[in-house]
């Protein structure tokens, strides 16, 4: 009987990443990789994992399709790492069933909105050195953020110094719209480009008219040839 139990345990134990502990929580598979000095997301996480804890490691990047084969995941804890970059397709494959995603306490300055807006999960984004911009504003407005951590999303950098150090929610409540600032910048750039093309066209037309006028004056000023004398008949 003990040998039979051992055989049942082998598939689960062998598929567990060597630096992690795999167990069950409320009848669901849990992979615990907290504080294991990991620098990247393990490749051999069991496919039936429901809970994944990768907190307190040294992970710096979440590449595209990092969790694609983990369709049963409901919770991912990536807090207290050194994450700086998140790919647009980082959470592709787990968007439907994911309930909680914790990215707090990292080094994230900006994040592609496509990576988060496709999720239905409750997000924790606090305590990161955020650069307040349109993409972050859209995430705040459209994503499901954990209400307990929203006020800890602070502007580490911003287009204007007066916003630095303030919670993003407070800045937006004051009427600031980073997306409209970007739109105005785009409009100005388009206006400058169109004005440049228009000025080039005008300059070309002026040069063309002036050149034709000079040619006309040159032809008028040149002496006409004298008519030749008629030949006398002999």
TrEMBL record:
Entry keyword Ribosomal protein: no
Protein family membership: Belongs to the LRRC3 family.
Record domain LRRNT: where: 15-51
Organism lineage: Eukaryota, Metazoa, Chordata, Craniata, Vertebrata
Keyword Repeat: yes
Membrane topology: Single-pass membrane protein
Alphabetically ordered keywords of this record: Leucine-rich repeat, Membrane, Repeat, Signal, Transmembrane, Transmembrane helix
Protein name: Leucine-rich repeat-containing protein 3
PANTHER family linked to this entry: ANTIGEN BSP, PUTATIVE-RELATED (PTHR24369), LEUCINE-RICH REPEAT-CONTAINING PROTEIN 3 (PTHR24369:SF170)
Localization annotation: Membrane
Domain of life: Eukaryota
Gene Ontology CC annotation, any one: plasma membrane
């Amino acid at each position: 009987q003990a040998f039979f139990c051992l055989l049942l345990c082998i598939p689960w134990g062998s598929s567990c990443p060597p630096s992690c502990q795999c167990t069950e929580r409320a009848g669901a598979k849990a992979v615990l990789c907290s504080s294991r000095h990991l620098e990247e997301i393990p490749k051999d996480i069991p496919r039936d994992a429901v809970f994944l804890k990768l907190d307190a490691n040294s992970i710096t990047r979440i590449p595209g399709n990092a969790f694609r084969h983990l369709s049963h995941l409901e919770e991912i804890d990536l807090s207290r790492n050194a994450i700086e970059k998140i790919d647009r397709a980082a959470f592709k494959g787990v968007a439907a069933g994911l309930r909680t995603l914790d990215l707090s306490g990292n080094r994230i300055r900006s994040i592609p909105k496509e990576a988060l807006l496709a999720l239905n999960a409750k997000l924790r984004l606090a305590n990161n050195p955020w650069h307040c911009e349109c993409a972050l504003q859209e995430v705040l407005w459209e994503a499901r953020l954990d209400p307990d951590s929203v006020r800890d999303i602070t502007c580490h950098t911003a287009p204007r110094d007066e916003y630095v150090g303030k919670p993003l929610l407070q800045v937006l409540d004051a009427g600031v719209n980073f997306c409209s600032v970007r739109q105005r910048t785009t409009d100005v750039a388009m206006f400058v480009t169109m004005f440049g093309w228009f000025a080039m066209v005008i300059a070309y037309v002026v040069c063309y008219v002036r050149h034709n006028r000079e040619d006309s004056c040159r032809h008028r000023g040149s002496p006409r040839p004298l008519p030749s004398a008629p030949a006398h008949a002999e």
